[in-house]
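can u do me a favor
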């Protein structure tokens, strides 16, 4: 019997299963926004070749100190050649990226037949964040920024400038349009942790259009 993940731990586990479930030993994987590289390590254990990309110098240094192949760079200009990978993994990093440029980069990096698995924040995430951290004023600032940026992006198709604009939530419909514009298509979607009818997390499988 399958269960619907709802608690933070269940969602975390479902997210790991989603991101790692499709990787094959012969895959060349790029994990974009890989943070400390824990998923790079996990995927490499399947036999796949895995490169991480991360803009934080300190996180890159920490990952490299653990023997992982993690490159300093951003999702909007990934420092890897076109057609270098069969799979892209992106675990809750899309909210902090320019999603238009990031999805174009996915299209550039993937070989024919390539695919993407990602998790990201849904519209319920700001409420979930406040439910967990609402006693902290910074949580209110973070949630307010997220709601504002998401509204601005929905209307104008771009984020607010600088670090003010670096937190977005997504809907499957919004992302499907971006995938299409980048030459990609949604294969399947799941939603987790709904609050007031809005999912906190989205999980997508994506592929190159026409493959
Ligand atoms: C919530 S963490 C997720 C880290 C990791 N993927 C995980 O699942 O634990 C978001 C990550 O995205 C990275 N990030 C932020 N902006 C980025 C960008 N423009 N391009 C690539 N990564 C970015 C952050 O530095 C951070 O490591």
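np, heres the sequence
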């Amino acid at each position: 019997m399958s269960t619907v993940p709802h608690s933070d731990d269940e969602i975390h586990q479902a997210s790991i299963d989603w991101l790692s479930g499709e990787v094959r030993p012969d895959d060349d994987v790029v994990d974009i926004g890989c943070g400390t590289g824990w998923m790079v390590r996990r995927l490499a254990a399947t036999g796949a070749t895995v490169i991480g990309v991360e803009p934080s110098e300190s996180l890159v240094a920490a990952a490299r100190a653990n023997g992982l192949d993690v490159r300093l760079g951003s999702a909007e200009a990934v420092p890897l050649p076109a057609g270098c990978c069969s799979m892209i993994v992106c675990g809750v990093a899309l909210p902090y990226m320019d999603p238009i440029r990031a999805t174009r980069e996915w299209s550039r990096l993937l070989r024919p037949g390539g695919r993407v698995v990602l998790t990201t924040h849904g519209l319920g995430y700001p409420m979930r964040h406040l439910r967990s951290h609402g006693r902290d004023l910074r949580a209110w600032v973070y949630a307010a920024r997220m709601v504002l940026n998401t509204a601005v992006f929905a209307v104008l198709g771009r984020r607010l400038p600088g670090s003010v604009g670096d937190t977005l939530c997504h809907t499957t419909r919004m992302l499907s349009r971006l995938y299409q514009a980048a030459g990609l298509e949604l294969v399947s979607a799941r939603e987790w942790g709904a609050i007031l009818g809005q999912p906190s997390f989205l999980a997508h499988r994506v592929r190159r259009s026409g493959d």
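DSSP finds seven helices and seven strands in the chain. hope that helps!!
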